[in-house]
């Protein structure tokens, strides 16, 4: 029943936008009455949040499938991150909402953006913890990396074009291969790492002089 209601909510939102998607319309499409929706979700806002959460979970499930089907840690990182960065701005909740209710996009993905960013962080933390345990990536503090990746995906959703055009898969792949893969494998440089690299560089300079 919940899935039917969420399917109906998604379809109606994609047709007319969030504000004009009434609970009566959603109930008719789901083949239930309005009271049933209230009993299960209490408010329209809760229903929309549940619908968004389900779409996020679907995307993350697809990411897991891609990672499982890909061999080699570098390729796993590249394929999953490229998929996420591409999917965030090609999902119907972005493309179709821009057509039917462009004035709602900013509110929808900023006010409700906290939910998607937190879901992304939790998922990335879980994946990186498992990957560290397997020995495929270095041991480092994974939370800052998870935060950066989740916020990158959310930023691309809102603004796909800067110096880099995230609508161009070749550009995205090059960026991921040179920047994100090393980040995920080795983590962010720590103060100790930076100091060690500085000492090493100074020693090399002294020897060459």
Describe the structure.
With 209 residues, the chain is mostly helical. The protein has a domain at 52-189: Orthogonal Bundle (Tetracycline Repressor, domain 2), CATH 1.10.357.10. It is 81% helix and 0% strand. It has eleven helices and no strands. It has helices at 2-16, 23-30, 34-41, 44-69, 73-90, 92-100, 102-111, 113-134, 142-158, 169-186, 191-208. Helix 4 (44-69) runs antiparallel to helix 5 (73-90), helix 6 packs across helix 7 (102-111) and helix 8 crosses helix 9 (142-158). The mean pLDDT is 86.
Range of helix content: over 70%
Could you say which overall geometry the principal axes of the C-alpha atoms support? Answer: elongated
**CATH 4th-level superfamily of one domain:** Tetracycline Repressor, domain 2
Separation of the first and last Cα atoms: 75 Å
CATH-derived architecture of one domain:
Orthogonal Bundle
CATH class of one domain: Mainly Alpha
Which band does the percent of strand residues land in? under 5%
The largest sheet, given as strand count, sense and whether it forms a barrel, is: none
Write down the secondary-structure element order.
HHHHHHHHHHH
The CATH topology of one domain corresponds to: Tetracycline Repressor, domain 2
How large, in whole angstroms, is the Cα Rg? 21 Å
Q: Number of helical runs?
A: 11
Please identify the structural class as seen in this structure. mainly alpha
Overall mean pLDDT: 86
Pfam families: TetR_N
Keywords: DNA-binding
Organism: Nocardia macrotermitis
Protein name: HTH tetR-type domain-containing protein
